[in-house]
Amino acid sequence: MTSYAIETPPVVALPIRGSDALFPVRRVYCIGRNYAAHTIEMGHDPDREAPFFFQKNPNNLDPSGEFPYPDHSSDVHHEAELAVLLKSGGTNIPLDEAESHIYGYALSLDMTRRDLQGEQKKLGRPWEIGKAFERSAPIGPVYPVSETGLRNDGAISLSVNGDLRQKGDLNQMIWKVPEMISYLSDYFELAAGDVILSGTPSGVGPVERGDTMVLSIDGFEDFTVTVT
Fold this sequence. Notes:
- This protein has 228 residues and is of the alpha+beta class.
- The protein is built from 5 helices and 18 strands.
């Protein structure tokens, strides 16, 4: 029987809609600038170039419906996203087989300490201090693909205190979900439990303590998050 020198960390797991089972999380990959309008608002050229990814930590995913405003920042932004959760993986996955690895989807937010991220960009340093802080990825319940079907289109929007901030459609992704899965598998060995945050439409902006964010994607129940 294996013994460990310290207490083993808890398994990060997400609730599955309509099930008592949980979805265990292995890794979290996030694609950057995957909607043309958002790419432009961030000051970049939306022409289709090779995708780039950064990572959050599994325990950054938070299904509680609350987002504690983080320390060391005065400019925290919302980014509404569709999360894609994998049931299997591998390396060098062909594009036409990529969607067969999807377990399901969830509504998620890539919360960003924009001021800290901006400092790292200027210095050419990694973004983790702006992206991978505690509870930086609020996430709703997992919807199995058997219920939703494969999702490559559908309106996505986010409101703050009833005011519409972000609006787009999943079909506006520069790199579609199958392409992301296939591309990532060329550089990493994907596996069951991996989560991919698929990018955000334009309209990202700051939140304050006490704000209520409501994320909507066609075919899913709204996901509400309160900034505490």
